[in-house]
Design a protein that fits this description.
methylmalonyl-CoA epimerase (chains A, B); MMCE/EMCE_epimerase (chains A, B); methylmalonyl-CoA epimerase activity (chains A, B); globular; alpha+beta; 2,3-Dihydroxybiphenyl 1,2-Dioxygenase, domain 1; about 130 residues; nine-stranded mixed β-sheet; lyase (chains A, B); homodimer
C-alpha cells in the first residue's frame, strides 16, 4: 500500500543556518527557501539521490511546527511522508485497524498540492506519519 | 557528498506490535526481526520502493536506544542515515565546518557491516545523523 518514501521533514529554528550547513558541511544540494503561508512553514528541499529531506521553519502565526520547536528548540525530526496511489483506500485500511487520522479524517491538499492525510503519532509508535497521494 | 538516504531509523518499544502495524495497517513489506547483539538492537526492515525504514527495539544491556525510549516511551524518530562514497573525506569536511563526530571520531563498523560515523545532533539542528560508506 505505501510505496516510496516521499520525504523526511526536519523542523529547524533557523532555515538559513540549516540550509548552509546541509550544503557546506554535508555537501548536499539544497533549494532556495519557499514560503508556504497556507501551510505555516518555509521549506528548503535537500535533494538526495533517491528522496528528499524537507527543512521546515515556522512561518506566521499558528505554524503547525511551532509547538514542536517550543519543545525542541534546537530542532528535530518532525515527520515522515510515504506515497500511496489511493489515499482513501489507504485511509480506510488504516482506520479499520484502529489507526487514527488527524483532523476530520478527510484528505487535505498538502504542501506539494496533492491530497494528504496525517496519522496520529501514538498509533505509529511515536512517529508522525503523512501519506500523500501520487 | 551525501548521496542516497540509506534509511530512517524509528525506535519502538515493541517490535512485534510495530512490525504487525506497518504490515497490516500501512500494507508495507516488513522483514523478519534480526537480532544485532553487538549493536544492542533488534531490527525489522520496512522495505519501501526507494529506501527503507528500520524499526529498532533495544536488545540487551546498554542498548544505544534505551535512553531514547526512556525519554520517549511510545517510540519515535531516532536517526537518519545518508550514504557517502568516501567516509573519511566526508568526516574531514564535516569537522572542518565545526560539526562533531560522536565517539573518537573514527569510523566504526555499523549494523550493515559497513563503516559508519554518527554526527552530533546539536550540530545538525537536533537530528541524529549517520553517514555510511557504500
Amino acid at each position: 500500500m505505501i510505496g516510496r518514501l516521499n520525504h523526511v521533514a526536519l523542523a529547524v529554528p533557523d532555515l538559513a543556518a540549516a540550509s548552509e550547513r546541509y550544503r557546506d558541511a554535508l555537501g548536499a544540494k539544497v533549494s532556495q527557501p519557499q514560503a508556504l503561508p497556507e501551510h505555516g512553514v518555509t521549506v528548503v528541499f535537500v535533494e538526495l539521490d533517491n528522496t528528499k529531506i524537507e527543512l521546515l521553519e515556522p512561518l506566521g502565526e499558528d505554524s503547525p511546527i511551532a509547538a514542536f520547536l517550543a519543545k525542541n528548540p534546537k530542532g528535530g525530526m518532525h515527520h515522515v511522508c510515504y506515497e500511496t496511489s489511493d489515499l482513501r483506500a489507504a485511509r480506510d485500511r488504516l482506520t479499520a485497524t484502529g489507526a487514527r487520522v488527524l483532523g476530520d479524517g478527510e484528505p487535505k491538499i498538502g504542501a506539494h498540492g496533492k491530497p494528504v492525510i496525517f496519522l496520529h503519532p501514538s498509533d505509529l509508535f511515536g512517529t508522525l506519519t503523512e501519506l500523500e497521494e501520487v
